[in-house]
Amino acid sequence: MQYQNPILSGFNPDPSICRVNDDYYLVTSTFEFFPGVPIYHSKNLINWELVGHCLTSDEQLYLHNARPSAGIYAATIRYHDGTFFMTTTNLSHQWNFIVHAKEVKGPWSAPAWVKQQGIDPSLFWDDDGSCYFVSNGSGSPEEAIYLCQIDPFTGEKLSPSTIISHGCGGKNPEGPHIYKKNGWYYLMLAEGGTALGHMETISRAKDIFGPYEPCPRNPILTHRDLLDSDPRTAIQATGHGDLVEDQNGNWWMVHLGIRYRQRFDLGRETFLAPVIWDEAGWPIVGEGGCNNIVMDAPLPGPTPTPVCRDFSDEFDGNALSPHWNFLRNPVKDNYLLEDSRIFLKGTEKTLSSERSNPTAILIRQPAHHVEATACLVGEIELGQRAGLTAFYNELAHYEIFLTKKEDGYYIGLGKQVCDIQVVTECHKIDYSGRIGLKLDTTDCAWYTFCYETDGNWLPLGRGMTKPLTTRSVPATAFTGVMIGLFSENGTAAFDSFSMRCLGENC
């Protein structure tokens, strides 16, 4: 059965997956965004529904002063004996921890902190019920993969942390997962860094503590050496995978990758590859160690339906949609749903404020070609700015906004590119208490911004896509563009937001 990659588009890196009977649950990284670690559910590995988040309280997720692309790193989700477990790293606060829940939608427990350094932790239960905690040894005296036995409910280590691998020859061995099959313990790793040299390797041992022998075909997944003429180069940076066996006995890998033809403002996304095991007991991933945009494999569950990544919100519920995200820990009193509107109480903290939490709600840009619209209604205050933003981090974002000056209302286009902040195309307008705002990316190289007056959309200006791409933004950049609403220095009301995917022709 044919299916289309990626299975989760837009900023959805570092996937981890588990199966409970014929239900599949997948989590991804969230870095400096709140809530943390989205949980997706599927019956067929293709149609995914966001059902909640693992980290929804300040106690579980402390992001104050987190730098861009810090915060929550790669998570692992597992299910054992009636309980869901999720382990991850908060790079900005106390590092590794575990939370658990009886129901995947929660409530999830308070963090159980683990005294083993490194990132990308994972959990494994052996046949006798013993639980093991494995992580990359970043920050430890020796760069390696460390393992200990653990109580997953308390985080207490039941054995010393022991080096079990230095990887299979690539730099930055990380993303460790352990599986057991036919009496072998398999240790799968991401190596080569998370950029274009990314790859997935595997080794195995008869004892969980090793010694581990590498697969003779390593890496088992990489796109680093593909020729430019190979259509599979549309996917790059493949790695950081997790394996799952379906109810039919077929195996699959979810992994991250980027779509690389013209740009990758979407960040790292989640891809799916079929896995078979050779006669020697080693996995073969996808098309001989590569994945493709269109794949053909025996999917489990019901026949997939066409994937729609459009989103709209009329703000007429009692709570915000779980698709919305905040930058770091939000001040909850600054967000109010009332009369089918969202009221954003802006403060002096702006989208450009360093390591801050401006008043904004953001959603992942799910495709290269999108059109996002919003309607701002009601009064705003003198000196206030409120509008629609395309946001990567505080050093890379654009926004179309309404502002009020002494002599009336203006519509403006703000740009933050590295350390340069400018406002262009600032026009005085007649504002009667309602204005439409729009951005689109139908031109691969540009974000185009428009505003509505008298039922007509008028172009305001453009911002190049490139400054908002992962390889262009300053410092570490592990996320992707988010689109949403914001207010600064005053309260603004919006009564609608929508985002339509317009195709993938870049």
What do you see in this structure?
This protein is mostly beta strands. It has no helices and 39 strands. The strands form 9 sheets. Strands 25, 27, 28, 30, 35, 36, 37 and 39 form an 8-stranded antiparallel sheet that branches. It is globular. The model has no long low-confidence stretch (mean pLDDT 95).
Characterize this entry briefly.
The chain has 506 residues and is mainly β. The chain contains no helices and 39 strands. It starts with a strand and ends with a strand.
Topology:
Elements (H helix, E strand, L loop, with lengths): L1 E3 L11 E5 L2 E5 L5 E2 L1 E7 L6 E7 L20 E5 L2 E8 L4 E7 L10 E2 L8 E4 L5 E6 L8 E5 L12 E4 L8 E8 L2 E8 L7 E7 L7 E2 L6 E2 L12 E11 L5 E9 L9 E9 L5 E3 L8 E3 L14 E3 L12 E2 L7 E4 L2 E6 L12 E6 L4 E9 L7 E9 L2 E10 L2 E10 L2 E10 L4 E7 L5 E8 L2 E9 L17 E7 L1 E14 L3
Antiparallel strand pairs: 1-24, 2-3, 3-5, 4-26, 5-6, 7-8, 8-9, 9-10, 11-12, 12-13, 13-14, 15-16, 16-17, 17-18, 17-19, 20-21, 21-22, 22-23, 25-39, 27-28, 28-39, 29-38, 30-35, 30-39, 31-32, 31-38, 32-33, 33-34, 35-36, 36-37
